Task: structure prediction
Amino acid sequence: MACIPVITGKARNDCTVTPLHLPLSVAQSLLPIVTFIRTLTPNDPMTKIQLLGGISPDHFLRDHWQKKPLLIREALPDFRGLLDAAELIDLACQEDAQSRLVIRRNGRWEVRHGPFAPRAFARLPKKDWTLLVQDVNHFLPAARELLLKFNFIPHSRLDDLMVSYAPEEGGVGPHFDSYDVFLLQGTGRRRWRISGQKDRTLVAAAPLKILQDFRPEQEWVLEPGDMLYLPPHIAHDGVALGECMTCSIGFRSPSARELIGQFLYHLAERGSVAQQAREDDRYRDPRQDAVKHPARLPDGLIEQVGAILARIRWSERDIVSFLGSYLGEPKAHVVFEAPERPANEAAFVKKALRHGVRLDRKTTLLYGKDSYFLNGEEDRLPRSKKWLLELADARRLEGKRFVTLSADSSMTALLHEWYLAGWVRIGASA
Ligand code: SIN
Ligand code: CO
Result:
C-alpha cells in the first residue's frame, strides 16, 4: 500500500505530528462537522460522535472498520487513562490477571509473564520496557464503562481492554496484530508509526512478534485522549515519549483455521453429529484379510473413514450454537465470585427495583434467534425475552426499567439465580 488513507478528527496544534503521507485535506474538511457533534444517543448508529472524530458509527463501520486506519484527535478529550502505573503494577501482581513485561536491552527483546512479585519492578532499567495487562475490563468498573462506548460493534467481536505502561522509549516493537484495535492514549505521549506493507516476515529468534523489515509510511504523536484505529494486519510500532499509558481495545477476528477446528470439535461434542452417531457406530473390518505389510494403512480403513466423515452434516442451528458457545466462553483463568452475603429472591428484587442490575464485568451474554448464551452456556430464550435482550445489549437494566419488566416472575427467578452465581450484580452502574 503506498499510502494508507487516514482521517483525523478535531485537529490539535499538530507541531508534534510528522505525517509522511497524511491527506490533511480530508482532515480539515471534517472540522466543521466536529463542531456540530450531537450528544451521543446510545446505539444510534447515525449519530456523529466525537469518539470517532465526528463521524457516525455507521460511517465508521462502512468506511474504516476492517478497511483502513483512522486517527482521531481528542476522541475522549478529558481522558487521562483508567489507572496509574502503581495500580497497573498491583494488577500485574494479581494471580487472575494476565500480564507481560517486555524489555529491550541492547537491541535484544525479552518477555516475562506474570503474575509478578512487586520486587520485579524495582529492578527494571530506567527506560525501554513495557508492562502490559490484559482484560483490565474484568477488574476496573471504569474500563467496563469505557467498553460501552464501543457498543456499536457486536459484543461477539470483543476480546478485551489491555492497558500498557511504558517509561521513556518503551514499546513492544514493530509488529502486526490479527485484531481490530483502538489504541487510546491515556497519560503521556506515544509516537505511533504504521505501515500497510505486505511483507510480514518476523524476526525468527525473538520471543515476541517483531517485524524483520518495518517500513513505516505514516507517523503521529498521540496525546492523552487521542485514539488510533487499526484494522488487522496493519504493521505498527508505538514508542513512549516519556512515561505513558495506552489502552488497547481489541476485537478479535478468528482465523478460518481456528473456526474450522473449533467448529468440528463442537459438532463432535455437542452438535447434531454427536446426537446422530450411536455409541456402537464404529469402524469395523470383518472382511479384513491377513496382511503381509502390517504397517501399511489398509485401503478399507481409508474408505470406511471417508464414508463416516462424509456423513457429517450441520445446520444453521449448529453454527449459532457453536458461535454463542465458543465466542461467549470465558477465558480459562476467569473465575466468577458469588456475593459474600447473598440476598434471597425477595430482597434481591427489592434492591433491583431501586438500583437496577448489571452483568458482572466478566460476564458475556450473547443471543441468537431462539437461544441465548450466558458465558458460553446455551439455553432457549424465554417466552418473554425482552428483558434478557435488553440486558444483553446494554449490559444493564436501570431500576425504572426493572420495575416495568419484572412483572414476569420467571425473569426475577432467573436473574436471582444468575446473581447467586456471580454472573449478575445489583446496581445498574458499575
Ligand atoms: C502497547 O500498548 O504498547 C502495545 C499495543 C499494540 O501495539 O497493540
Ligand atoms: Co499491536
Q: What stands out?
A: The chain has 13 helices and 17 strands. The chain has three domains: 6-251, 256-283+296-314, 345-426. Confidence is low (pLDDT under 50) at residues 9-41. Residues 175, 177, 236 surround cobalt (II) ion (ligand 2) (CB under 6 Å).
